[in-house]
Amino acid sequence: MTSIQFRSLPALGLAALLALGASGSWAAGAHAGGHGHSDHHASMDTPYGKPGDAARVKRSIEVVMSDDMRFTPANIQVRRGETVRFVVRNAGQIRHEFSLGTKQELEEHYEQMKKFPDMVHDEPNKVSLEPGQQGEVIWQFTKSGKVDFACLHVGHYEAGMKGQVSVGK
Fold first, then answer.
1. Count of C-beta atoms within a 10 Å radius of residue 165
2. Domain with 88 in it: what CATH number?
3. Whole-angstrom Cα distance, residue 13 to residue 9?
4. How many Å apart are CA 124 and CA 71, to the nearest integer?
5. Residue 163: which H helix or E strand, with range?
6. Integer Cα distance of 82 and 89 in angstroms
7. Three-state SS for 160?
8. Domain-embedded: residue 148
9. Distance from C-alpha of 102 to C-alpha of 118, rounded to nearest angstrom
């Protein structure tokens, strides 16, 4: 069973919170009104990899988020099997997030963000950061191909705040 965090209850409203609970449609992660980490994250395997073990990190990649709705760098190269520490820094004046996933996952979650714009993420493949904050995502890329990342705050995704990780063999 996961725990519920009520950090922004007034922003969501009790009716919306109760509707979410009744429908069983809690979005994953530590969202305002959502739920926090659970033990399943440790074994979470996705089409693009799994949460990484900090002891296996061979390389750190700094990713800067800015209010011009861009990630720097926006294109990243890694090797299949590599465990990377993304050191993510919000250099802007508004909240941004780094969310790693398939294009479909990102677009589906973006629709949830439109309904609940105060969501705050703290998941193995996502980090939300206030202005000036720094966080990290440690990820092991187990499969070759392309992996997308984006900021899913309302308006940021459409403005082009996206990037891609190319996972080589």
1. 21
2. 2.60.40.420
3. 6
4. 19
5. strand 162-168
6. 22
7. coil
8. yes
9. 22
